[in-house]
Design brief:
With 314 residues, the chain is α+β, with helices and mostly antiparallel strands. It is 28% helix and 19% strand.
Amino acid sequence: AHSTVALLPGVELIMAVRSCEEALPEADAFAQLIAPTSVDDFFSNMWQREPQVFLHGHSNKNDQSWKRPLPQQNWADCCDMLAFAWGSVPFRPPDGCDLLIFKGQQLTHSYDIKGPCAALLDGASCVVNHAEYIWAPFTKLCLELRNRLAHVYVNSYITPPGYQAVRPHADDRDVFIVQLCGCKCWRVWGTPPVQFPYTDEQVGKNGLEIPSDVLKAKPLIECVLRPGDVLYMPRGFVHEASSPSEVSSWHATLAVATHDWSWSKLAAGAVAATLDREASARWRAAAPLSLATPGGGGGGGEKEALEELLEYIR
């Protein structure tokens, strides 16, 4: 019953989020996420610099309590979330929440009718993009993490034993991988082939090849994540993940879209906004076509216009 209201609009979703709030004491969600590392240490030495694993404390047999900033999840929760994402309840998932199924590391639509459970039994992996739209624990966590990370969303991955959802690749965002159920084997390589890539520069995606020397090198991190473990990866680091042969995996990828928050984009946006506010609309007009092509019309004065533009920006 707790998960059914996660899809309902308005008051019902608020009630679901509040039920999650009651499950955990008030605390700094980000500090809980990266414990035992301190927040100051993380932002001083790791953020946007290097991948890092934050273990949940499996070696301490005397303390098995759950310490991450969302209620501990189980496989029943996973099945409920997949049912919502597939649309098998009376309420369709909202726009932006997509269920994707991968078989043989390729996107497939073979299970659009059969559904995610049939896909998993057949060795396919299920991905729910923007799972925070339908799963209240993710909703609450994203809202809490905004105090530290500005904006966060969740993509959720479920992979059966012995399979790998997607090929090695790099992302255009910083991510925190939270293992929820089962285990997953991760490999992360050092020295990103593209420093701080934008969306069209993600190697391993959309036909953009990973340089061969990257995958030939020894991974910077090679580990197995268990429930409660967290892996942080800055934008651009090549990685891959697979389930071990004997156990399935469910993890949440907390994504921070840092490609939209770069210095260059902020500066370009600020400059464009300043130019567009100029009273005469001088800088809203098209630039001379001669700046783009030798045969374009310009009417002269291109150099003077550029100098005027630079002076205005100053």
